[in-house]
Amino acid sequence: MKTCFAPTIWKILGLSLLNLAIFASPALADEKKKKAKVKETSETTPQMNVTLAKVMKNGFITCGVSQGLPGFSNPDAKNNWTGIDVDYCRALAAAVFNDTTKVKFIPTSAKDRFTALQSGEVDLLSRNTTWTLSRDTSLGFDFVGVVYYDGQGFMVNKNLKVTSAKQLDGATVCVTTGTTSELNLADYFQTQNMKYKLVAFENNDETIKAYDSGRCDVITTDQSGLYSVRTKLKNPKDHMVLPEVITKEPLGPAVRHGDHQWADIARWTLFVLLEAEEMNITQANVDQVMKTTKNPAVKRLLGVNETLGGKLGLSKTWAYQVIRGVGNYGELFEKNLGMKSPLKILRGLNSLWNNGGLHYSMPVR
Amino acid sequence: MNPFARLIYHEKTRPITIQCVCLVAFLVVTATLVYNAGVNLKEQGVASGFGFLFERSGFSINQMPISYTEDSSYFRAFLVGLLNSIIVSFLGIIIATVLGFFIAICRLSSNFLLSKLAMIYVEILRNLPLLLQIFFWYFVILAALPSVRESYELFDTFYLNNRGINIPRLVSEPASGLVLLSVVLMILGLFGYHKYINYHHMQTGKRLAIWPAYLVSGLLFLCILWLRDFPYSFEVPKLGGFNFEGGLVLYPEFLALLFSLSLYTAAFIAEIVRAGILAVPKGQVEAAKSLGLSHGVTLTKVVIPQAMRVIVPPLTSQYLNLTKNSSLAAAIGYPELVSVFAGTVLNQTGQAVEVIALVMSVYLTLSLSLSAIMNLYNKKIQLTER
Amino acid sequence: MSKTFTKLGDWLKTNLFSSYANSFVSLVLILLVIWTLPPLLNWLLFSADFAGNTKEACDSGGACWVFIKVRLSQFIYGFYPTSELWRVNLSLIIVALGIFGSLSGKMGPKSWWLIITSTGIPLFVWLFLTGSLFGLTLVETSSWGGLLVTLVISFVGIAFSLPLGIILALARRSSMPVLKVLSTIFIESWRGVPLITVLFMSSVMFPIFLPEGWQIDKLLRALLGVLFFASAYMAEVIRGGLQAIPKGQYEASDALAMSYWQKQRFIILPQALKHVIPGIVNNFIALFKDTTLVSIIGMYDLLGIAKSAQSDPEWLGYTTEGYVFAGFVFWIFCFLMSRYSLSLEKDLTKNTH
User: With respect to CATH, is domain B74-112+253-381 assigned 1.10.3720.10?
Assistant: First the structure.
């Protein structure tokens, strides 16, 4: 027997086991430390407030985002992420770490996103997700607010000569599976007493590709999504969004149910963005406002004399960090979705309450 | 020897020690995992249990072998997914087997060009990832077909476009019951006649002709059809507002999956069959020839039965692979088990553990039963030693 | 001259036109080749675009390889930081050297090389690429991608699945019932489920089963999923080899008073493994191809990155090129592996008879 294969095997075996041990050891060492830490905190805070501790320990937030939806969360060719959902995560990182880069974006499909949040794979889901009752309850989440008020719409190729969703009887519809769009679609066609053929994909890109290649007559998702889809088509000008908005789609970030501290941080970071716009504090002028302001509400927000941040388990200047890090809600909107972006979406419902919109920050005090 | 050393080194106690350690380790690991999952899910208030199966699903599925609407339950969606998996696997297995045997024979052919082309087929197809092939079929080949209005057509009844193949559907009228009954009876009769021929052959050594029986049953069938006034009609697809209405549609998702699964697996089956045929010693063929057996009889009675002994076990595992690979449909939206149940349903209910457990147990049952059969066969053909 | 012609004629006659049926088949096939090959080659090469850096350069109607050229570094390295690419290149060279060194032996793999390649190198490469060694810049595995991810998963999977498979196979054939049952359960449950559900479990569900705060890198989790899956298949191949060893071999080694491990190491496994080398290599190839499934769980392996590049608004409509390129790369690797297994098989059969 010249092939000396087998003696080798034992050496390989031994060394592989050793290897596995080495691979695993950093993880295990971490665990020990972490366990110790969790025990420490558990004496002072309720057992369930673990996310902030975990985030602090890791030094970054893991944020579940979409796999590519321009305007909301979209990676470019260099894997730099842009979009309002992404910027919200950065705002959160600014609140916690005073550093907008301390966030790791995990792309999730519409289908996998909830499992990823449940399991703790991500600390927060900021993925144009509609706030619904069952997601809030039986899926085990807490929605912390609304980043974008949306509604579901339809887009068709202009050469079909369709002008209203009511003419879609018998059409083939492309949709991304695991979304509220899929369910609303069924409801809408049922109430209109129309028939449709469904083609459902797991991945947004595949839905778009299938629609673009003519597999379907119609593509449906949230209206904002449709505008963003249009930028990914071969001939965007050949397609039009139909006027009907068939549902309410409040899109917002979600966290795991039960960790109230983390939910509070996420919620109030969102409110800070809105409050800052209402108070006309921008990324550019925040430093100056902080120095010169006489308004007690502004002072409170920026942590000049009060420590609201401490109540959240954050630093005194957390809100200031957020605004300086990413700007206010209006700035984020214009940059990612509004006139400064390729999507050119009007503020509409997404204006502040005092401008005829729906965004209303609870008082930060 | 001290008792501890004895546990490890003594010839009798050592196996027991090892086994105890393994068992305990296994139990501890399993228990920890289950416990953690329980704690983690409870903390977040995620629903648990299988009660969700009977709630309204609310979503639609594009290919339904059984009736299903948005008002059906999740369990019904599960059944639809399962049936779709079975349909595509079953058809895939048949096509792959036929094609695989055909290519194997081509590869063994004396025609240089034929055998080389068969070789090229095998080498290309089996060395490319299946997922890539599925994408290629779906996004490159089928997506390049013309739109509905510009479909390729055949006799105004068959249409091919980028939304699939539209073919007529056989519609049976109430009067067709008797026809169906007569067909069943005829098949039984033919089966009996075959048995009788074999029996007669064994008894007398003479073989009766089979064709008169087929002729008679064929004529009989036509007569009954005529008597019952042809109780069948074809529903031909017609161009409606957006799509073809009526008839039967084979969707591109289904076609892409079916083609890629069967072409991919056929490449492997071809290799298995070729190896099987080559494994039959040359002497067997020569012996058969010297006995004066014809080419056909040599193949069917000498070569194939021996080759099958080598072919069947790996063939079974290819079938198994094909069935499991059908789950890749999730990538192109064919509504089979993984995509419908572990996809849409999981997402809506959020009960990942229950859903995945159910899906895995379906596949496990399927493969365990297949591999049980295979193991039985394996035992039967294993080398028996003194 | 005429001699070569007659030779050619003879060859044609025996290989293509030996009978009427054969001639007919040959003619049809020749037509088929003439009909398909030139347009295909034309699209792939002759009228394809290679020059330029933008979409506008692609106007000749053939394949647009400019798309691949522009994206090439992404296809190979994913989003690995440009300044650190030398680490990837160095790792690739080391791995290639290791593989080449261990396979260059005439009589099958060389033992010491193999040991280093399958244990030391994966460890080194992992630490080197993540940067947790030598004080290098830390590179998160989430920014790895392209061919790099494909190779890391398949290389580590291949290196570890063989030893794991051997342990499982031995346990399944052992005389200790508990070990036998446990390894049977392990093997059959991994073999019984589709890889895609395994990957789904490992990527998004796995943390549910861990205690609060534990975490394992996502790439590592996917890798473990692929590894366990592959080792269950490997175990069955090796079990096949073990079954083929005649009883006499066991009896003889028992008669020499060898211990269990001596027996396996010097007598049983060398023969068993040799029997099933083709099966083992086939498993390696299958593992390599299976790595593409990680693209479904949102990781950017070669196929995943080719797919995502196609939906870049600037480069819409070059789907075919992306898939053809990815397919070409996969094919080369798989084909080389299968050729190696063939040649090894030949050498081994030559030397035993």
Answer: yes
